[in-house]
Structures are given as structure tokens and as C-alpha cells.
Amino acid sequence: MINIQGITKSFGNLQVLKGIDLHIGKGEIVSIVGPSGAGKTTLLQIIGTLDRPDSGSVTVDGINVSGLSTNKLSDFRNRHIGFVFQFHQLLPEFTALENIMIPAFIAGKGRSEAKARAEELLQFLGLADRANHKPNELSGGEKQRVAVARALVNEPAVILADEPSGSLDTKNKAELHQLFFDLRDKFGQTFVIVTHDEQLAAITDRTIHMKDGLLMPESTITSPNDPTTTTV
């Protein structure tokens, strides 16, 4: 699902990524961990086509995105990748249902199709009764689940999450973490999650350790899609 070869990235004189090779299979839930400044978020942004590497190639869902134009990248991102951030970033003037529908409108879907998909997701996430509530009427956990639904509305192949449970209490964290696995089982998405949460990292299919812009060689995997254990 994701294939990265030789990725480097610098900001001025600071080299943030120093040659990353990484393969992530379809349906995997992968966590990326490491100290602040290790390059985790930069790597996630490059996978999500929010930033371009200085060198190397990135293939997502069978498409080499490295050479796509800005407009084509934007279209690819909206159709193939969903994003979940630490803070929900819901638009306060719209209801939960409307927030979820927005990416579908951007992708060119009609109102009835977008509404049906958003309602399906709200039902699956246990939020059907909150569809017409605005963000200030929702709890923190409900807001983050709406954000997850928004990320899923266009049925992307990949979900990228940056500290998705960082602003939640213990109960809502556990519920969100379980939700990722429930969604993978129902919809088959691949999840890549940057996190400092050790409990979340411990339950993912694979934990990738980063330090100083490099992947640590001791990272291993036991994937449900590949029962063998492999060194990154």
C-alpha cells in the first residue's frame, strides 16, 4: 500500500530525514514512535503528499506520487488519503453531518451520495443521534470520532493520524484506539499513526522506531497479513 525508497528531507541546513526505506502493506495498522525531532511528522506529511521529499520516491495505493503536479497531488490526496490530527479541526459553524460531508463535496460527489455516506459512518461510530449537533455541543471523544468519520468519507485507502488521541482522556483514548481496528476490519484501510502513546503503539501491528531522521533497525513486525517476523 505504501512504498518509500531513499527519502531525504532538509529544512535549510537541518536534515530531518536521512534516507528512509519503508514498506507498509495493505490493511496494516502501523505506529511510528520516537523522540521529538526524530522526523516522525515530516515522514507522515510526505506519505500524505502534504510535503515533497528532497530525494527518493513515494508510492501510495499503487501510484508514484513523487512526480505529480500540485493539482494532481491535491486530487489524489482527497481521494486516496484521510487525515486525523490531535485536535479535531472541525468547522464550528457546521453540524457533525455537514463536517463529514465536506471532503465528499470537494471530491465532486453529489449531496445525496455524500449525505448517505456520512450517515453510514455516523451510524457505525455510534453517533447517529449527534448528526445535527455542532462541535461545541459534542464531547471531546465525539469530536474526534466525527473527525475520523470525515477522514473516511471518501473511502480512502490510507488513514494517516498524527497524535490522534493526544487530547483525549483515558476512556476516550481506549475507545478511539479500538475504533481504528474496528474500521480496519470493516473497511480495510491502512493506518499509519504517529504517537507518543505507548499503549497505542503496543497494540498496533507494527511499531516503527525513529531517531535522528532514521528508522531504527531493531523495529520488528508480526502482521496479521504476514505471520512472519521481519526487521524494518
Automatic annotation (TrEMBL):
Keyword hit for Transport: yes
PROSITE patterns: ABC_TRANSPORTER_1 (PS00211), ABC_TRANSPORTER_2 (PS50893)
Residue span, ABC transporter domain: 2-232
CDD domains registered for this protein in UniProt: ABC_MJ0796_LolCDE_FtsE (cd03255)
GO molecular-function terms, A-Z: ATP binding
Protein keywords: ATP-binding, Nucleotide-binding, Transport
Lineage top rank: taxon: Bacteria
Keyword Transport: yes
Identification of the protein by name: ABC transporter ATP-binding protein
Source organism: Hallella faecis
Phylogenetic placement of the source organism: Bacteria, Pseudomonadati, Bacteroidota, Bacteroidia, Bacteroidales
